[in-house]
Amino acid sequence: YTSRVFGTYLSEGMALLQEGVAPALIDNAGRIAGMPVGPLALADEVSIELVHKIASQTKKDLGDQYAPRAADQVAALMVDKLGRLGKKSGHGFYEYPADARKHLWPGLAEHFPVRAEQPSLEQVVERLMLIQSIETVRCLEEGVLTSPQDADVGAILGWGYPPFRGGPIGQIHTMGVANFVAACDRLAKIAERLGLAQRRDYWHSQAERIHRVVCERAWNGKLNSFVATLDGNSMDASLLLLNEVGFLQADDPRFAGTVAAVERELRHGDFIFRYVEKDDFGRPENAFLICTF
Predict the structure, then answer these.
(1) pTM: predicted TM-score of the whole model, two decimal places
(2) Nearest residue to 195 (alpha-carbon basis) of 115, 106, 92
(3) C-alpha distance from residue 237 to each of 78, 81, 96, 182, 273 (Å)
(4) With CB atoms counted within 10 Å of each terminal CB, which end of the chain scores lower, N or C?
(5) Residue-wise pLDDT tens digits, 66-83
């Protein structure tokens, strides 16, 4: 589990580089997102050569079933053509001079030209963090993990996933399941606008995957409602956005049941609480006016 999800952070950073995103923006976004180090610097630490060898062996093992990734192409170029193996050789995405601090290799601009239109910092952070949640959901689907809680604890302790985000599954719960699916759709639209067909198809497919998982594991038959967490039973007023973000049609009986459950479980007088479950600050003491409106 840790190797699979940890690897997506590296590969997404390398995909962004190939797409023409400035390398400094990529690594700064990783750190600002709360990761211990940016994805390109981390690839250097792990060894770009190792990333390349793993991709090559995986391709041999899977044969025609293997789906090429942008990160594979980047690693192959860095290792086979440029001989930049990572920190261990003193040359990777960064230079490692003996008498000075490491710095990004200026030659990256020649091999990975920076495009004129750059994504926002928030968009890069979103890509680096969402892809980890997506791979975690796949691990849950495949039975690699048995519970969302195990996934979150393993991520925080295993590779330094930022605790304030709650873990890869906790991030989905914090965003709200519908908003997470909408975020994947939004990234697909951005990729389409930039002419990145492969990334567009990827994000569309992941939005469909998460939609399916949410329908299977965030629907609570006893409450006749979607709930805030996978395999959970707590309500969150963000579920009122299921229709607005395109997750469900307004006339879907499941949406009607969810609206009724929100009112039943979260309404207090004329006000609606965002949630009533205990969190790090105790139970909510006041209504959430935005949800009420």
Answers:
(1) 0.85
(2) 115
(3) 48, 53, 50, 16, 7
(4) C
(5) 888 889 999 999 999 999
